[in-house]
Amino acid sequence: MTKIEVKDLVKIFGPSPNRALSMLRDGADKDEILAKTGHGVGVGGVTFDVKSGEIIVIMGLSGSGKSTLVRCLNRLIDPTAGSIMVDGVDIAKVSSEELLDIRQKKFGMVFQNFALFPHRTVAENAAFGLEIQGVERETRLEKAHEVLSQVGLSGWEQSYPSQLSGGMQQRVGLARALAVDPDILLMDEAFSALDPLIRRDMQDELLDLQDRLQKTIVFISHDLDEALKIGDRIVLMKDGKVVQVGTPDEILMEPATRYVEKFVEDVDITKVLTAESVMKRPFAVGHVRNDGPRAALRKMKNEGISSLFVTKRDHSLLGIISAADAKEAAERGDDNLESILQRDLTTVPPDTPASELFEILKDLPYPLAVVTETEKLAGVIVRGTLLAALAEGGRNV
Ligand SMILES: Nc1ncnc2c1ncn2[C@@H]1O[C@H](COP(=O)(O)OP(=O)(O)OP(=O)(O)O)[C@@H](O)[C@H]1O
Fold this sequence. Notes:
Elements: E1 2-13, H1 18-25, H2 30-37, E2 40-51, E3 55-60, H3 66-73, E4 81-86, E5 89-90, H4 96-106, E6 107-110, H5 122-126, H6 128-132, H7 137-150, H8 166-179, E7 184-188, H9 196-213, E8 216-221, H10 224-230, E9 233-238, E10 241-246, H11 248-253, H12 258-264, H13 269-272, H14 275-278, E11 285-287, H15 293-303, E12 307-311, E13 317-322, H16 323-331, E14 347-348, H17 354-362, E15 368-371, E16 377-381, H18 383-393
Parallel strand pairs: 3-8, 3-9, 6-7, 7-8, 11-12, 14-15
Antiparallel strand pairs: 1-2, 1-4, 4-5, 9-10, 12-13, 15-16
Adenosine-5'-triphosphate (ATP) binds near residues 13, 40, 62, 67 and 222.
C-alpha cells in the first residue's frame, strides 16, 4: 500500500520563484537558473512513492536536495509546486491547523545532531512530543519508559543527555520520535555523527526495530554503504532531481545512468548481494510421484545438467539426484526416484550474503539450493551463476 506519494515536487529558494519555476519546467538546470534569476533550486521536480512499512533511503551528495526534500514532506519547508500525498491527503495543501495535527501525530523526526534538551532528563526528552500534544505527565512518562526500553535504554531514564555517549543520545532521539507512535519516521542523516562502529550497531538496531514496529521510514543519507544496508529502496538524487529509484540490487546491477554507475563503482558487491539476487530459477525440477529415473535422466540431458533437484508439488525441497545414479537405476529397471534421492543437502536462506557463498560452494559436489523459511526451493546457485552475477554487477570482483 502506498503511504507517501510525491509528485513533481519543486522547491525553489527566493522571493519570487515563478520565473525560476518556468525555466525549470523548460529544462534549465539549477546553475543556469541561479545565474539568471538569483533563485536556488533545492528540489527540481521529484516524483517517487513510499510504501507502507518500507525503509526508503534518500541518497545523494551534499547539495543534491535530500534535506530540502525531506523537510517538504512534513512541510517544515513549503514546497513551491507539486503534491505530497500522505494517506491520500495532500500535505502541500492542508491548512496550518491540519498540518500541525498531521505533523504531531503522523510524523516523527530524528535529526543528525540529536537535538536533545540538555537540562531535561532522558525520560523527559523522550516524552517531549507527547508533552506538545498535551498528554498528562504521568501517561507521557510511562510511554517514555516503554519506548526507551525499545531502544535499549532502560535504566537511563533519569540521566541527562551529557551523561550519555553519542550513540545513546541518538537512541533518545529515536525514542522521542517513536513516543508519539508515528506512522512515518523521517530520519535526517540520523547516524552520520556517530563513530563508524556505533553507526553500524545503530543501523542493525534500526533494522531490528523496524522488523517489530513496521513503520514507514524515510531515511536521508549521503553514505552509499548505509543506503545499501538499510534501504528497501533507494532514491538517488543529483542536483535536486532523482536519477534512479530502485532496490539496492537494482541500483548496483542495473545503474540507470553513467552517474549511478560511477557512484556505485567502489562498492564491494559481494557484501551487498544476497543468495536471492544471484540465484537462478530452478528450471528443471523432478517430482517424486511422477518422475522415475528415466524421466529425470531425460530432463537432465535436455537441460545439459548433471544433477536434478526433486521437490514436492508445492515446491518443498526433498533432495537431489545425480545423473550417474539415475542412469544406474534406469539400467537396473528401478523406477523409483526415492531410492536414489540424496536428502541430506546443504541449503542457504535467500538473504545469505554473496560473500559467504564462495566458501559454501567450494566443496559442494552439487548446486546449492536456496530455500525459503517454509522449506520451498526458491532458486539454485552454481559457482558459474555466482561469478556471472557478480561480473554483471561488474565491479570489484
Ligand atoms: N534556505 C535555503 N536558501 C537557499 N538555498 C538553499 C536553502 N536550503 C538549501 N538550499 C540549496 O538547495 C540545494 C539543496 O540543498 P540541501 O541542503 O537540500 O541538500 P542536501 O543534499 O541535503 O545536502 P547536505 O547533505 O549538505 O545537507 C543546495 O544547492 C542548497 O544550497
